[in-house]
Amino acid sequence: MEKIIYNAIRCKRCNQIIESRTCHDFVVCRCGACAVDGGKDYLRRLFREQDCYEELSITEKEKR
Ligand SMILES: [Zn+2]
Fold first, then answer.
1. What is the pLDDT of residues 20-46, one digit of tens each?
2. CA of 35 to the centre of ligand 1 (A)
3. Does any domain span residue 30?
4. From the CA of 53, how far away is ligand 1's center (Å)?
5. pTM, two decimal places
6. Total domains in the fold of the chain
7. Residue 52: its pLDDT value, please?
8. CB-based contact 10:52 (threshold 8 Å)
9. Is the pLDDT of residue 14 over 90?
10. Which domain range does residue 12 map to?
11. Residue 20 Cα to ligand 1 middle (Å)
12. How far is the CA of 34 from the centre of ligand 1 (A)?
């Protein structure tokens, strides 16, 4: 299992960094090209084009 520490992307169009903090925290960047969702539960990305954002999220392998 991977644990999500930071769920965020940077939009290459408007240069805004958007972060989803909780599982239903849906955040759209200011130009509307991409969005993040899922908080610490899952990494969900919505975008108009695949290469319009840079991935910034940090995950960690959970120790057992
Ligand atoms: Zn944008």
1. 999 999 999 999 999 999 999 999 999
2. 8
3. yes
4. 8
5. 0.90
6. 1
7. 95
8. no
9. yes
10. 2-59
11. 15
12. 6
